[in-house]
UniProtKB/TrEMBL annotation:
<protein>
    <submittedName>
        <fullName>Gamma-glutamylcyclotransferase family protein</fullName>
    </submittedName>
</protein>
<dbReference type="InterPro" id="IPR009288">
    <property type="entry name" value="AIG2-like_dom"/>
</dbReference>
<dbReference type="InterPro" id="IPR013024">
    <property type="entry name" value="GGCT-like"/>
</dbReference>
<feature type="domain" description="Gamma-glutamylcyclotransferase AIG2-like">
    <location>
        <begin position="5"/>
        <end position="134"/>
    </location>
</feature>
<dbReference type="Pfam" id="PF06094">
    <property type="entry name" value="GGACT"/>
</dbReference>
<dbReference type="InterPro" id="IPR036568">
    <property type="entry name" value="GGCT-like_sf"/>
</dbReference>
Amino acid sequence: MLLPFFVYGTLRPGETNHDLFLRGRTLREEPGRLRGAVLYEGPGYPYAVEEPGSVVSGELVTALPEAYAGLLTELDRLEEYVPGDPRNLYERVARDVVRAGDGTAVRAWVYVAAPAVAARLRVRGKPIEGGEWRGARA
């Protein structure tokens, strides 16, 4: 099954990695919200940390079917995600994301902070109020 991606940082439209990785390779991009996650500041990009009670804003990106396999590989590389590697900064997990338009839940890939990173952020990180990275940088 080809899951869409939920992006909340540099892959969002208008951000640095959107044009590099997504332009011309998506079928649809629509606003969405990830419940049960807190957004933390990172070094030029944010981290979503799974915690109850908060919401992260971003886009739900549906890749063109013919671009999906290559895009998945490239996004894993961008996020430095290798399945099972304890040195990962991010983990790619399937989570329900709510479409902002109609409120329906869609299963999507989300890159969340890996366990060791999440533990450090919970202790010393700076949460981004309201779960919106763009506003936090303005």
